[in-house]
Amino acid sequence: MRDLLNKIVDVEIDSQIGSKHQSKDFFYSVNYGKLAKDEKIGAYVLGHYNALKSFRGQVIAIIEREENSEFIVAVADIDNTYTFKQIRALVEFQERFYKSTMHTAGNYFNKEIRPITLGLVYRGEDILVEKYDDLIKAQTFYRFIGGGIQFREKAEIALAREFREEINANINIISHKATIENIFSFGNSDEHEIAFVYEIQIDEHFYLLDKFEKTENNAINDVYWINKKKFISGELVLYPDGVINYI
């Protein structure tokens, strides 16, 4: 669930602002619904005070209800500046009925070093990267496709799994390019990762697409082929730090 923080998601509204709860004695102070791609996850929409049918925005908080291990997310426009206390106050109209814990990017669950695996794919001078936005730093950056390594899972196996899950692609590993330790911040969150970087090939039809979407945990990221010279020159930012030495 924590990977949803800062991600862009779609929400389908089923309880509009001002409507009455079916069983409890309260009215909805904000629009409320479910994630479009996972109806088990409820979603508060913050910052819009007209009745909505759907909404696309950024996950700014995750609420964990202890009684039934239910997860609810708070979603807002990507340029929002809500604090922890403000988010808590806006959802209190309903969360007061539950014993729950709220997590934002700033207090990001239990912190630990995260092993990840990333795939470097070439198309001539172009490399395949996904786009991210750090709203706190007001910075756009790019990263190779990949993700976390599970316990007792080898990095190569994890990379193949991530490409299948995220873009439905098969991979062929060419070589191990680098292992990079990266200590950084994203949004309000401090992070520490060990990245295993591999040069790989993927299914042929992806080389014909200049841009496509990647879906992970109900979040959508844009994926591009971009000339590596734009990163080497500093025109665009490529993370993790140091990976530019291996492209």
Task: For this entry, give a set of tags.
247 residues, 3 helices, nine-stranded mixed sheet, 12% helix, 2 domains, mainly beta, five-stranded mixed barrel, Nucleoside Triphosphate Pyrophosphohydrolase, 15 strands, Inorganic Pyrophosphatase
CATH superfamily of the largest domain, by name, is Nucleoside Triphosphate Pyrophosphohydrolase
Could you estimate the helical fraction of the residues in percent? 10-25%
Order of helices and strands: EEEEEHEEEEEHEEEEHE
What's the Cα radius of gyration? 20 Å
Question: What name does CATH use for the topology of the largest domain?
Answer: Nucleoside Triphosphate Pyrophosphohydrolase
When the domains are counted, the total is 2
The counted number of beta strands is 15
The portion of residues forming beta strands comes to: over 45%
Shape: elongated
Q: Architecture of the largest domain in CATH? A: Alpha-Beta Complex
CATH C-level of the largest domain:
Alpha Beta
> N-to-C terminal Cα separation, in Å?
32 Å
Q: Write down the overall mean pLDDT.
A: 90
The largest sheet is: 9 strands, mixed
Summarize this structure briefly:
By secondary structure, the chain is mainly beta. The protein is built from three helices and 15 strands.
Describe, in plain words, how this protein is organized in 3D.
The protein is elongated. The protein folds into two domains: 2-103, Inorganic Pyrophosphatase, CATH 3.90.80; 114-246, Nucleoside Triphosphate Pyrophosphohydrolase (Alpha-Beta Complex). It has helices at residues 84-95, 155-167, 229-232, and strands spanning 8-15, 31-35, 38-45, 54-65, 70-76, 100-103, 114-123, 126-134, 139-143, 145-148, 171-186, 189-202, 211-216, 219-227, 238-239. The strands form two sheets. Strands 7, 8, 9, 10, 11, 12, 13, 14 and 15 form a nine-stranded mixed beta sheet that branches. The chain is mostly beta strands and 247 residues long.
